Amino acid sequence: MPHWSGVQRPTDAPRCFHFSFFSLAFFYCMMTRRAIPVVSELPLKETLQRCLSKGSTDAFSSLSPPSSLSLLFTRGVCACLFVAALFYGCFAFLRSFVLVRTFFSLGSLPSGDRVRDQLMIAEKAMPHWAEFVQKCPVLFVILFLVALTRLADGQVVDPVLSRSLYTDDVAVVDLSGTKWESIHPSAPFCPWLVVFYNDGCGHCRAIAPIYRELAAGLDSAPEDDVLRMVTAAAVNCAVQLSTCREKKINYVPKFFLFMPSNCAAGAKGSCDAGKMKEFVIRSSIKALGLFRLEVQGIIKENMHVDGSMMQRCVGMRRSLQAEKRARRGGESSSTDPFVETRQLYATDIAGAFFLTMWNEVSLVGLDSPGPLGAVKCFLRIVEAALPGLGADALLEAVAEIENGTRFSVESWQEAVLAARIPYYGAPNEVQWRTCKGSSPSYRGFPCGMWLLYHSITVNVDAGGDTSPLEAIQEYVRYFFSCEECRQHFLEFNFTRDGDPVLQLWRAHNNVNARLAPVKEGADPLVPKRQFPDAEICGTCRNSLGAFDESEVAVFLRKWYEWDLSAVSTSTDESGNPSYFFRPGRPMPLYKDPKQRHRDGVRYDPVPLHVFLTVFVTVAVLNAGIFRTRRRSVRSLLHQHCRQKI
């Protein structure tokens, strides 16, 4: 038997293994910007304010279990553990190096006393708490995994508050992701009724009060009604593009019922968490009674319901509503009086163009010939009519896709940012002037699109090969996500012979006349009216009060005449320039197109499964190397002991 009294066993292998684990974990945290709350383009003060603000966006924006303080705490834990592991690993590496040098770098095999002396020197160089770390490595590993898992399930975008039509309604849960298991422990076991919508869609705004009524009535449903189990939720596709593309949302509003996949009707026992089954609700929510009946029927046919399950799902919904109520109570609302702007600002036209490229094209994609041809024709019309909006740069991106480059949301949105469209605001916070409503849920994008269309018809060459109204209708056919609005617009019979300016003007006034009596989704302080009124065009009506179309045409051509300089020189109420950036001016915040901190759009460069694959590979290699080396050392020691004997 080998004699070990003079030589300490080589115990540095676990230390180096732990160091490798901590190093890889920290590398993953840093690569995904989850370990330390730093936003490189923003001042530290603003970064901390965002991290500690009420409106943090986690896996589910309005209601996610990890709060901002919790995220900050777990980030701090990660950082502290890394520092500890770094010191510990450095000394472990030093000790390992001394051991390897002692055994393999010297010309002859040293005596046991010399090995012991070298190891004692390395041991004394280590801090006292290193022995505790060595004896309790499992504790450090568990703490680090808890912190890392909490971050991976929590913050996936930078802390900003996502806009929503249902911000002020506690009965509707605002979702900003598809990780149902993250929002509440009971989430995978309960049915979810989710509306996918676009906050710029007029029809989505119109049905919002009906959906609020449905959500508010869930608590008052009879005890034996399966609707009591349902949680009403909403996803804004203008913000959550990846989620809506994953669900193949090609029009809005669209209603889904999500339920656990392994909880069949008639089954005994409780449900198990699993992949959620999806059911599209076909009934119109305007017929609320039929809508409820369809939801009830789907639940009864596909899910086992008992008293404990009912109580569990009701408790989850009330818990989420209470959390949203608490968050909403901490928000402040503006009390400034609203004054409608009757002047046309070119930044609103640019803002509408930016949003339709950023949101609508990204949602639909350019993977098939129809949408690709429609967006190409539309961009050519915009380039000809409204130079300086960046359509030429986007045409280059379209050409690359035509030449075989695969379309992706990330690359397209980078191209939209690189086009330097001179809008006012930020990607998820476009600011409106002419189209500003009395509330963020009014006007905005639909109004801006009308301004864009009118400006195209006024400024494009009417004698061109492509009719501007045909190009606009084809673009609307593929990229206007509001289903009802799209169908109404496609019903217009535009002709090549008529004046496109007057044809679009008549169509717009017809829409205003149809929507004037509608109260749902309409701005109460900006009523629908016939344009232009006497206040801005006194000569546009004759003595009988009817429109004089010849005068109207003159007015419209002057009103919508494109002047790019107005985009880069106009100022807001405070005298500040009303642009996100001027043409030729470096873009603020977006030095790197992939760093989209301001609008909360960010794509993690290292997914969790990649990190785990790398970690397992390195761990196996380390284990093999240390096992081989330990056998070699034992063999040498055994030979040495036998020689002494």
Automatic annotation (TrEMBL):
<dbReference type="InterPro" id="IPR039798">
    <property type="entry name" value="Sulfhydryl_oxidase"/>
</dbReference>
<keyword id="KW-0285">Flavoprotein</keyword>
<dbReference type="GO" id="GO:0006457">
    <property type="term" value="P:protein folding"/>
</dbReference>
<feature type="transmembrane region" description="Helical">
    <location>
        <begin position="606"/>
        <end position="626"/>
    </location>
</feature>
<keyword id="KW-0732">Signal</keyword>
<dbReference type="Pfam" id="PF22220">
    <property type="entry name" value="QSOX_pErv"/>
</dbReference>
<keyword id="KW-0325">Glycoprotein</keyword>
<dbReference type="InterPro" id="IPR013766">
    <property type="entry name" value="Thioredoxin_domain"/>
</dbReference>
<keyword id="KW-1015">Disulfide bond</keyword>
<keyword id="KW-1133">Transmembrane helix</keyword>
<dbReference type="InterPro" id="IPR036774">
    <property type="entry name" value="ERV/ALR_sulphydryl_oxid_sf"/>
</dbReference>
<dbReference type="InterPro" id="IPR036249">
    <property type="entry name" value="Thioredoxin-like_sf"/>
</dbReference>
<feature type="domain" description="ERV/ALR sulfhydryl oxidase">
    <location>
        <begin position="438"/>
        <end position="530"/>
    </location>
</feature>
<dbReference type="GO" id="GO:0016971">
    <property type="term" value="F:flavin-dependent sulfhydryl oxidase activity"/>
</dbReference>
<keyword id="KW-0472">Membrane</keyword>
<dbReference type="Pfam" id="PF04777">
    <property type="entry name" value="Evr1_Alr"/>
</dbReference>
<keyword id="KW-0812">Transmembrane</keyword>
<keyword id="KW-0560">Oxidoreductase</keyword>
<dbReference type="InterPro" id="IPR053995">
    <property type="entry name" value="QSOX_pErv"/>
</dbReference>
<feature type="transmembrane region" description="Helical">
    <location>
        <begin position="72"/>
        <end position="94"/>
    </location>
</feature>
<dbReference type="GO" id="GO:0005615">
    <property type="term" value="C:extracellular space"/>
</dbReference>
<dbReference type="GO" id="GO:0000139">
    <property type="term" value="C:Golgi membrane"/>
</dbReference>
<dbReference type="GO" id="GO:0003756">
    <property type="term" value="F:protein disulfide isomerase activity"/>
</dbReference>
<dbReference type="InterPro" id="IPR017905">
    <property type="entry name" value="ERV/ALR_sulphydryl_oxidase"/>
</dbReference>
<dbReference type="Pfam" id="PF00085">
    <property type="entry name" value="Thioredoxin"/>
</dbReference>
<keyword id="KW-0274">FAD</keyword>
<protein>
    <recommendedName>
        <fullName>Sulfhydryl oxidase</fullName>
        <ecNumber>1.8.3.2</ecNumber>
    </recommendedName>
</protein>
<dbReference type="InterPro" id="IPR017937">
    <property type="entry name" value="Thioredoxin_CS"/>
</dbReference>
